[in-house]
Amino acid sequence: MSARPAIAIVGGGLMGAGIALVFAAAGYRVALYDAVEAARAAALPRIRDNLVGLGLDPGFAGAISVHDHLPDAVADADFVFEAAPENLALKQALFAAIEVAAKPDAILASNTSVIPITAIMAQLHDKTRALGTHWWNPPYLVPLVEVIRTEDNATAAVAAMMTLLTDVGKTAVEVKKDIPGFIGNRLQHALWREAIALVAEGVCDAKTVDDVVKSSFGPRLAVLGPLENADLVGTDLTRAIHDYLLPALDRATTPSPYLDRLIDAGRLGFKSGIGFQTWTPEQQAQLRARVTQHLMASFGAPLVKRD
Ligand SMILES: NC(=O)c1ccc[n+]([C@@H]2O[C@H](COP(=O)([O-])OP(=O)(O)OC[C@H]3O[C@@H](n4cnc5c(N)ncnc54)[C@H](O)[C@@H]3O)[C@@H](O)[C@H]2O)c1
Question: In Å, how far from its chain's centre is CA 164?
Fold first, then answer.
């Protein structure tokens, strides 16, 4: 048996299965629980397919056991990752059950995208071991995991999680305040708000927005972060630009009416074949493949460790 900590995953969909893959490839035992029979049946085939796609041995999925009873999955775990649907009441109920079934010193983490961790963990008796771990999709290719501190969690729990994530090759960063969207999604959606506003105001069409990003600061961002860039051009120049520009940027605090109009017209994106732009099934497949190839080329396959 491996001396590495035991991992449990609650919710074995897109993110849960991907997180399970990361730990299994790195030589950890993983117990995965899902409430839905079809999801349980799909989890291991999906993980094997993804391992093959990454050029890895599909046999690594052998480290993952799938469970239909939550206590069986979490009872022996040292770390529990919840990746169930984005619903506060559901997550609260799951953590109540996890707290009862897990070892008293197990560290409990939610993979919520935007719900404050403090709200999800509000009803726990011991909040010191509860935190957020925001993985990015696909978890086995995107290196970042944001580890979210709350006013209740213990420094030791955060440190143990950072160590675990680093051991499986992730880039773990600490988010020191439990704020909506943490760091990455706040930055990302600040850009999306302005992108939508540019289209809504008729400055350009959606393809032009994406062309501008992909042909300019998008690729550069991979090696030059925004604050490195501010230092590069000078904080004084940055201030001068902000003097003119910030008053002109979109500052809406509610979703854009343009988005509502798309949704009302059934323009939901890939799932309806049209959103900001039209998407044939071939175009959708090509874009997905391009993203995977780019992430593979940038970051490589997940870390593989064997005893
Ligand atoms: N999809 C993303 O890009 C992404 C990125 C970061 C974080 N997240 C977050 O990760 C979480 C999971 O998202 P996802 O995209 O994997 O969703 P998903 O729908 O693919 O997976 C959710 C899984 O939870 C299962 N489930 C439903 N009810 C359950 C219950 N009571 N107990 C256990 N499992 C249950 C479902 O059967 C499904 O397999 C969400 O909180 C989401 O916001 C998603």
Answer: 17
